[in-house]
């Protein structure tokens, strides 16, 4: 689902501090992610995720991100943090992902790997959308590795977020080049893992909005 969207959705991922969540909302981001993956340097306990959630404005989505967590951990995190959307970034199949009764995004590392849209639809038929990341398949996300444009599946008829190595200086060009439904960023707006930088958050949003304005102007012309 690429095309002339007037507003590229923005997800800031790996938040650990309620103050960062408040600023993200003021900047107009669509979603804030909290990470429960054991391999993440941004991992939070469910109680901390609940504090981030409490700082969110209405209409801003809390995304709970898992990577090969077991069912008990996923259930405990959902019970305490009460996310509205799940993201599975490991080897989870469709049956596991949909088991929790919430919509889900499937995250995939496509570094050096090509996969076609039909395969994604067949393997995760109930996914609300996909997060296409630049890291190697099976590796953890949040790696800062860019996704090669050639590895983005053509004709993906679901919402998809571009992820991997985005920052305030390169996201505008990336949005103009591939017109993703949304963008997802962790490291590019940070001072340190899990500690977001207000200036970088602001500049990131401004860069996406500038690219959107160009696309809207081109559509109207
Ligand atoms: O960010 C993490 O620590 C992480 C760990 C395990 C799975 C996914 C993870 N993050 C996802 O990767 C993208 C891109 O990160 P970055 O911008 O390259 O640092 C991030 O937005 C999450 O969706």
UniProtKB/TrEMBL annotation:
CDD domains: PRAI (cd00405)
Keyword terms of this UniProt record: Amino-acid biosynthesis, Aromatic amino acid biosynthesis, Isomerase, Tryptophan biosynthesis
Domain (N-(5'phosphoribosyl) anthranilate isomerase (PRAI)): residue spans on this chain: 11-206
Catalytic activity, EC: 5.3.1.24
Pfam families, sorted: PRAI (PF00697)
Gene3D superfamilies linked: Aldolase class I
Source organism superkingdom: Bacteria
Catalysed reaction, written as an equation: N-(5-phospho-beta-D-ribosyl)anthranilate = 1-(2-carboxyphenylamino)-1-deoxy-D-ribulose 5-phosphate
Pathway recorded for this protein: Amino-acid biosynthesis; L-tryptophan biosynthesis; L-tryptophan from chorismate: step 3/5
GO molecular function: phosphoribosylanthranilate isomerase activity
GO BP of this protein: L-tryptophan biosynthetic process
NCBIfam families reported for this sequence: PRK01222.1-2
Family: Belongs to the TrpF family.
Official protein name in the record: N-(5'-phosphoribosyl)anthranilate isomerase
Lineage: Bacteria, Pseudomonadati, Pseudomonadota, Gammaproteobacteria, Lysobacterales
GN (gene name): trpF
